[in-house]
Protein 1
Amino acid sequence: MMMVKPITKTIQREGLALAPARRFRSASVATRNIAILVASAVVLSSCQSILDQAYQPNVSPSDSPQIVDEVQKNDPRAQMGAREHPRIVASYGGEYHDEKTEKLVARIAGALTTVSENPVQSYRITILNSPAINAFALPGGYLYVTRGLLALANDASEVAAVLSHEMAHVTANHGIERQRREEAEVIASRVVAEVLSSDLAGKQALARGKLRLAAFSRQQELQADVIGVRMLGEAGYDPYAAPRFLDSMAAYARFSSVDPDTDQSLDFLSSHPNAPQRTDLARRHARAQGMEGTVGDRGRNYYLAGIDGLLYGDSPEEGFVRGQTFLHGGLGIRFEVPPEFRIDNKVDAVLATGPGETAIRFDGVDAGDTTSLTNYLTSGWVAGLRPETVRPVTVNGLEGATARASAERWDFDVTVIRLNNQIFRFLTAVPKGSPTLDQVSAILTSSFRQMTPKETAALKPLRVRVLTVGPRDTLATLAGRMMGTDRKLDLFKLINALPAGATISPGQKVKIISE
């Protein structure tokens, strides 16, 4: 997931105040708060420490195993998991429902439960409808995995490696230990206090604003890694899947980031840091069960069959990113960002980052009884607004208004456009004095327009498709069938975990991304 540094810093540190925003959906628009949502780099944390030393486990089964579907009123583990579950689901775009994929994940997890530290512990597994790559656990047996992670994995053992690690946190009661050190109620009051309106917004802000009871200590991470690799082997999976998938996630983070040295574009690696030492440790633990390639099953064929057709990238409810263009069929709108910018279509808003610390945010609010967009700009929802810059504009036949604002070392262009009963808002931030503000804001506003019926009908989601390599297929021809990216060959190699110099053979199964 991409960090939008300039706007984040500005709103958190320089104090640009914005009014409650609303996220785009075809049926309804949920109230949000721009200040919290722009600061989306603070994501749900699950496992937060670099593993740089070995750990000798001393783990015993949980004293009072919790059946998730039979929550006991006096069990704090189940109460915490049940309380936070709807908030997490909301912050990650809801649940992803597909019978084939759900059965696949249940099959993988089921094999792990029989070899866990507490085999009578039950789990509630939720696939989150998010392209982010993440997995985490809450006390009481609540496990979460995103469809983005499932799309990146290439076999069942890799998903099992992630789930076994998270299950280890549950059986070792790590969530309870963490909660004793930093009470969830303290975090809730701090985060929700920042929300200007809407109970739903408060719940979602709480989930994203560092849910500490899912964040674990360095020692607990080491413990969960050791337990997880052991569980892989005992369940019959390839124990080397853990270091293998860590490498895949690190490669994806490099592929997705604007600045590979500083950007945290991957949820899982921002909360489960992928230091080389951790991969080495996982491989060392796997060696205790045998040499690589000689132990365990990867479960590749049934896994690929289970994710064939899996939704990839953006969901229709949140709109689509196609190269430099954002399109939303339900709302019937589209706009473009300049070359060299990268769009991040979050649940909360559309964010984009570009050269020279330039950042963009796009969201929408209900128009309500707003009569004048110039009056709307000056109604107090933007601190640092320069009133003399406010002026009406027309954007491809639509009513609009624009103004400039300043806060500490940042300059802003704020443009609003009315369409039907909604007001869409562009916020562009550049370092103070940068000459690019006019150019970037002009590209954004001039490209914003309503979609034609033909464009709307042609807009379809991308999915993972599993193909069998034919005798005439090559890396280049298969990669040429990839959609939704300009870096087709790079992404094809990445999602198939093909290293440099790798070749393909007839009969081999590979993944591509297409409609």
Protein 2
Amino acid sequence: MNKSLLSVLLASLFTTPVLAFEPFAVKDIRVEGIQRTEAGTVFSYLPVKVGDMLSDEKAAQSIKALFATGFFKDVRIEIDQNVMVVVVQERPAIAKLDFVGMKEFEQAVIVKALKETGIAEGRIFDRALLEKAEQELKRQYLTRGKYGANITTTVTPLERNRVGVNFNIEEGAAAKIKQINLVGAKAFRESDLLAQFELTTPGLITWYTKNDQYSRQKLSADLEKLKSFYMNQGYLEFAVESTQVSISPDKQNVYITANLNEGERYQVSSVKLAGDFALTEDELKKLVTVKAGDVFSRERLNASTKAISERLGKEGYAFANVNASPEIDKEKRKVAFTIFVDPGKRVYVRRINLAGNTKTRDEVIRREIRQMEGGWYDADRVMNSKQRIDRLGFFSDVNVETPAVSGTSDQIDINMKVTEKPTGNLMLGMGTSNIDKVILSGSIAQNNFLGSGNNVSIQVNSAKRTRTYVFSYTNPYFTPDGVSQGFDIYHRTLNTASTAVANYKSSSSGGGLRFGFPISEKESLGFGIGLDTTTITTYTDSPKNYRDFVTAFGNTNVSIPVTVNWISDGKDSFFFPTRGTYQKAGLEVAVPGGDLTFYRATYQLQHFIPLNSKFTFMLNGEVGYADGLGDKGLPFYKNFFAGGVNSVRGYKAGSLGPTDIDNGRELRLGGNSRMIGNAELLWGLPGMEKSLRMGVFFDAGQVLGKDQASSGGLKYSTGVSAAWISPVGPLKFSYAIPLNKAEGDKTETFQFQLGSTF
């Protein structure tokens, strides 16, 4: 056999081969040495095909092309009787990645980061990329403040030309901010300035917030907040001249130093408007809150320019440009501002696009939109539309963008992107007693039935003493102009024997029809009529007023309740509002035609006040009053009750109000009037603002009766609360301390309400 060998190294690809051969026509091509790579893959990269003339140059090109794939660490070409033999030695493949000692990160996060460096399971192993992967891993730890993290990499050969890559990690402790120094601060106390910082030294909750760990992004944001603080106090020329961040030799402590130049404090000498106003100058001047003689405040100046821009936006000037230009008099420490107004062209809305509603029908969203396609752009209408969609409760997030239409100067599109969330709700309750052992109750509701926006709910209570079956349906757009229609069907039984509540038994069945009429963007009126049949059974140990009621009106009574309610909802969000007012007034009247005539009136006022970007103050007040009409008294089973997680926390549900003593037992009777008041400071937990809200509250309330003895005046409590939209559903917790507990009061320090979504 006449065989010659051409061996060419990668470094010699650009030189003349040592062994040459006479060009010949390739009769066949054979590949040797491959284990994982398909022969077809090799053929696809070769610049030589069967029938081509193979020369020294073509052979060198073939070797170069195969090396360039990165699949092989050695390539040779041999010639066997006009057959081109390609001999390769494959690079090993990465069979698996192991991380030993890694606790700070989820493995999936690190695997994704390393994949971007070229290290991943199934890929060809390249030792040159291993160091790059180590550096990326160290960088990930630096973002968590773990400057002393040590990483050792081991590569283990495996069968079938594969390797395992093991990262052995000693994470060490995260470095903490030991000290933050502000050099050059004279006008304010350092503690007041550091209060503007998110970064801080270790504290009570920094184990959760991680704000005691250095972050370049957080430091930049904090210095910008510091600049805003100074400029809002008149220091127009304030500047951070330099910052230094150092770490201790043991890599456990971080020291931050910022050198400040406060400059002088300036007063506003004058403010004037210039440009094309589009509206009257007097109208725009009313929006300017910065006045001559005031200490300069960037916040108020920005608020003024924003108010002018938003006012112009109401008239269709979506791209209005409003800027304030200062004229500084350093000698007198005065600054004059000229606010230049350029409204631009008035624009109209070409198209409103919806995205993200995979379940909810387009029409359910569009009927809440108040900005019309083809109409002039109105910023107020767009914001109102966003809030109405959010208040539906179907979406966890509603985002609105207003991009200009390409190729035009007077058209925009409105893109509304929603993020759907589960709208079904399964409320579960469980209790125990020495009679029923375990009591289960619950309700199932779908607020967006089949994406139609309609509400369907079923409530069931399985206890032997309290059984409830309710079916409700509501169509919020029974007519295109927003008239709602709904109905309810129910059956309830109650037996209070062996409980703290006065002894009686009731069985009620009935139903009702409801209609709602919108009277403004935020207000609606509701009307309803129903039919109720209630049978009451009393016993010898029942309270006297219960037995007197049955004697006077009989065991079974039919009533025809007519309801009227008014709702004004100005909250900015369905779940976690931060501003706005909510009011609800309701009246239920059992009209003549039935056996009983009575009325129940209720009113609720709720107000949310934003204190800053993080804290919201909530005030809530509720009152209720009920009585009989004519010579017929109020049925005792229509009494008000209070206490529990939704009224006065710290007291057991339904435990407040008038009582009756029977054989030494204190029985709760409820009353014909109720007063509830709540004040609560609310804030979102950092990083979980849209799902978890904390609070500190003060509650007050009581139920009163006309003839019964009360359990005392108003009851007060205080404590902490939490509301969490968890993966398993909405949860509400409270830890409350009654402030004026009296003998006989039934208290409950920890209370919660549990629901699960589906």
Protein 3
Amino acid sequence: MARLLTESSLRRRNIWKVTRTVLQFILILMVVLWVVWSLSTAPKKVKTEEEIAENRMLDDGSVVDAAGNLLEDAVGIIGINNAPQVAVRADSVLPPDAEPAVRAKDGARFICVSYNGVNTNEKLESKIVNVNVARQQLELLAKAGYVTITQEDVLNYYNEHQGLPENSLLLVFEDGIYNTAKLVQPILEQLNYKATMCTYSGNLTDHEDMYITAEDINNLLETSFWEIGSNGYRLSYINVFDRYRNYFGHLNLKELVAVREHLRRDYNHYLMDFLRDKDRLREETEEEMIERISWDYRQMREDYMSATGFVPALYILMHSNTRAFGNDQLVSYQNEKELTELFQMNINRQGTCLNTLDSLIWDLSRLESRHYFSPNHLMMRIWDDTGDNVYFMLGDEEAASHWDVSGGVADFEGDRIILTTMPYGTALMQLKDQLPTDPDITVTLQGNVVGKQGVIMHATADGTTGIAITLENNYLVVRSMADQDMKLFEMNLFEFDGGPFISKEEDELQGLIALQQAIIDFDDDPERVREAQAILPDLEAMTVVSIEEGGEPYYPDLDISQRDERKLRVRLAGNGLSVWLDDQLIVEDMRVPVTPERHLLLIGAVSEDIERFSRENLDDDVYDAVFINLTINDLSKRDQEPYAYTAPDAYAEADETVEEDAVAEPERPSFWKWLIGLVGLG
């Protein structure tokens, strides 16, 4: 029988329901307020470079206005350190009598700049351009008024003689790397630029997420920022010889990469020559060569038509800078026939950026920005090719105000100075403040091995007197500038690092072993793999004469693109010079001629004294001397703070305060204090 509720018990139950509802509401409200407090007071997370690239947007909108137009000179440019960066016109920093190789001419013309890829790697050994450097380079081009043109614009320029916008730029990214497109997309959107992404047709079905696939091409074309071009069908190499002229045969890309360090430049691309034997004699007939090359072009057509429904208009023949379209005349004829039938234009050269109506649409040239190019390095090359009044990065104006630069341009980025020479030139920069009488200087040098970079102490402004301590072509050199031909001290840095490590005979054997291992690991020909498997044990069991046994020491070639980092310290007490390199004392209290002058010069120079070897068959007539964390101490005041070249003490202290504020986490209010403030009771 149901229990009857009295009026009082019913009232108590209703009161409890209301109370429970109110408590539940208060609990839910407190949870909501706690979530709001957590989100509103939590430290803001700084987006990483990868996250910015993923979101396809940039945090700084100061470079262009809402219409996509670049703002005037006073506006900063995004820098590597995300600090305000200033750019200046070429005519304001280069000598009045500076003569580029080419003077700007009236009439339509365009430049072509390309990148073999971009990435986020900041290591010196990286062979790909860092995305932040690429961003700075492209921003400088945009600031100078360069506007991108399309493949159709180029076709109309040559075929219909139609005009081009002033300061036209054909922008190209090569090798079809997926990550390149991902990182570059935000830059193109920021600058309202359009670029060509070149692919290898053999990689359009790549499943390793490294190369751009057919699906990626369609996605790129849906935006207004990309066109598609072609680097060909594949990267493959023929007629490969090592540096000892041993015949390595014909190698695919993975095999060549595996033995690359054992080669000089004695090899060729698949489409450039006849297949040749160890005596460099043809091992195929003319008919076989024609069929081999024609097959590549047929395969390109089939791949692109199947993947995208069209063949790109723009082609880049690998490799560049041959006499015509190959190293052999008959091969050149066949390439010309095939490429002119399949494509509508061809970039056939590398090293200069300027293209005019005097150029051929099948023989265009591009300047490929390399991994070691600073923004000013690329701009100097473009200035030399065109005579255009380009922009150079100045960086931090306050830091720059303490220096006078001649013979080049300097970029001040945080604790780094990049001193860029003019073509085949020497650049000097003089500290306006005089050195202490007995200076103690430390600096990290990070320029390329081939070239000159260093400091000149007790110098005149023109560098004709003083004591120079420099790194030159992998040597540490001390000389008096009054007699530059006389070296007071010289040390081979390869030997300083412990070399030579092996004999030439041992080095040659290592290359032969590496070849057989590469064939076993990467070759598609089973017979060739079996042959390598049979040869490899004999090579590994072979002994050759070592250095200790009288073998000739092996000294590696110096490549013009080879980067390095060295910590240099120089101390001058009276006329006694001491030098440390990488924290090792090299020269102690050496007597040197000292002048009354107390100026400090930094120097950078292009090397012309040695063979300018490049494994990539490139040439470069500009040099970047890189100085990091330059510090000057006064030996007579050991107990005081180091002299700061960048600014007076007050400025340095202000910088430190800002830096501390930037990294300090703000105090987070408690939940209850925040809640009281929210309702207006505090």
